[in-house]
Design goal:
It is an enzyme of class 2 (transferase). Its main location: endoplasmic reticulum. This is dolichol kinase. This protein has a domain at about 1-175. The chain is about 75% helix and about 0% strand. The protein contains 19 helices and no strands. The two termini are about 25 Å apart.
Length: about 525
């Protein structure tokens, strides 16, 4: 399975390289080759228990697929913005690609450094790949851009040391690279933009995303340190938790956001949400879907109480939430993507806050949340945190958040790029859901070395093709310009990756589909 997964990632890298064909795509190829070799060192460390931190079990390291996501995103973003003539975001794409390569290289060097005996051949490959990447950066980045890349690396190192120690068994090395690398980049961008505020420059919804992500992460770190010294399950601690959340929200996060958008954040948010009648209809519709999702949770828990204490939700039951999320995102993508962008940020902040309440057993809802959500646990929730629902939200939202709006003057990219915002809906909402449901109900032929079935993968590809046809019918902004073969190849590669990867597919698959569609 690891070899097939690696082959699929190499195929994506080579396809992007064939389209872009510049020094950064060559660096991506070099990075992929060395990550392939280092991945086996990480796998060996995990099997022998020699890794520095405790990582998630029942999965390989995932170093190769995770190492390529951020660099490839930067490469395709750079190419799209270069074609649109937007120099600022072309340079931003170069910074993203360079940062991703440096973070992946750091994780590879860490694995090589703690492997005993020292793997000579892997060291040589890592050295060659590192030399190629650093040489390219030297001749492509300005001094300020090099400093920015090194700042992200420094934040990533410290954030990894803190969070991987506090949250054992929550991530594989690859997932840690993706999640913590993304948070490090967001934190650095927020600091940079806060120090260089120019009135009227920048979209408020972008600042809203940056402040929300950094705010909830800092909130979690603060309470983790605090509850080392006091019991979090008492009423006194719970009152203190709610009070300090309000203080940090109103005293730190709101003023920070005010400095960035130059207006009252609460008034701006209310005005934004209720600006048009379409937005009001969407909010009412989303509220109904949220109530339906809560109804599924309560119904399944009532069913567990009446049947058996050991009752666990089936795969099909868990996929109900995927269908609800698809029903949530598709109208937003068709009618108002900016509203969907902001609503997804608010949902992410709420999900993470509720996970803090559950994890710290904050009264009055902490213990109730523990009981309700325990029904939907699977083998990937082996650590102290329950992250699968947050990964689902991230997988659906990241293509919307990462869509290069300034490089798409008409609100959409030409060709297959028009489907980029739909990457999460196609890969996770439809592809992964149909593969799981059909594979578990009628699948008989298993892919070698996995539990996934041939029937599930084929029906997933077919369902995504039908979904693309429906998007063409209902979304008039999508014009594929005869790029149907590329879309078919992209969907097929991502569906095969879903069958073979042991990483969090909700997070990985939409990003790879987005890379392919943007290329």
């Amino acid at each position: 399975p690891v070899l097939v997964e690696s082959l699929l990632v190499f195929t994506v890298v080579l396809l992007v390289h064939a389209v872009v064909w510049d020094r950064f795509s060559w660096c991506a190829v070099a990075l992929a080759i060395q990550a392939f070799y280092v991945q086996f060192k990480w796998d060996r460390l995990l099997q022998l228990g020699g890794a520095v931190f405790q990582f998630r079990g029942a999965a390989n390291s995932g170093l190769l697929p995770a190492s390529m996501v951020i660099p490839l995103l930067g490469v395709v973003m750079k190419e799209r913005c270069r074609a649109a003539g937007i120099v600022y975001f072309e340079r931003f794409g170069i910074i993203v690609a360079s940062t991703g390569m440096l973070l992946a290289l750091f994780l590879s060097i860490l694995a090589v450094g703690i492997t005993k005996p020292v793997p000579t051949n892997t060291c040589i490959l890592t050295g060659i790949a590192g030399s190629v990447i650093i040489y390219t950066m030297k001749h492509s980045l300005t001094v300020s851009e090099v400093i920015e890349v090194l700042e992200v690396l420094l934040i990533f190192v410290y954030l990894s040391m803190i969070l991987l120690y506090l949250l054992p068994r929550c991530f594989t090395p690859g997932e840690a690279l993706l999640v913590l690398g993304g948070v490090s980049f967001v934190l650095n961008q927020l600091i940079k933009r806060s120090l260089n505020v120019i009135e009227g420059r920048g979209d408020p919804i972008d600042f809203f995303l940056l402040v929300a992500v950094v705010g909830v992460v800092l909130l979690g770190l603060f309470f983790t340190v605090l509850f080392i010294f006091m019991d979090s399950g008492t009423w006194v601690s719970s009152m203190f938790f709610h009070m300090m959340t309000a203080v940090l929200g109103l005293g730190v996060i709101m003023p920070w956001l005010y400095r960035l958008i130059q207006r009252n954040p609460l008034f701006w948010l209310l005005q934004f949400l209720f600006q048009t009648q379409t937005r009001l209809y969407l909010l009412v519709y989303w509220t109904f879907l949220a109530a339906s999702a809560c109804g599924v949770v309560f119904y399944q828990n009532a069913k567990r109480s009446s049947e058996s204490k050991k009752h666990q939700a089936s795969t099909i039951t868990r996929k109900y939430f995927h269908f609800i999320v698809v029903a949530t995102y598709v109208p937003g993508l068709i009618y108002d993507r900016q509203l969907l962008y902001v609503a997804a940020v608010l949902c992410l902040a709420l999900f993470i806050f509720l996970e803090y309440v559950r994890y710290f057993r904050i009264k009055p809802f902490g213990q109730t949340l523990r009981h309700l959500l325990s029904l939907f646990l699977d083998e990937r929730d082996s650590g102290p945190l329950i992250l699968t629902h947050i990964y689902l939200l991230l997988g659906m939202s990241l293509p919307v958040w990462l869509f290069p709006r300034p490089c798409a003057p008409k609100g959409t990219l030409p060709g297959a790029g028009a489907l980029v915002p739909y990457s999460g809906v196609l890969a996770v909402g439809i592809g992964d859901t149909i593969a799981s449901v059909c594979g578990s109900t009628m699948g008989e032929i298993k892919w070698p070395g996995t539990k996934k079935t041939f029937e599930g993968t084929m029906t997933a590809i077919f369902a995504q093709i039908i979904a693309v046809a429906l998007i063409l019918i209902f979304d008039s902004s999508v014009n594929l310009n005869s790029s149907y073969a590329w879309i078919l190849v992209s969907v097929s590669l991502v569906s095969l990756l879903e069958a073979y990867t042991t990483q969090i597919d909700n997070l990985l698959l939409p990003l790879y589909l987005q890379i392919m569609l943007m290329a």
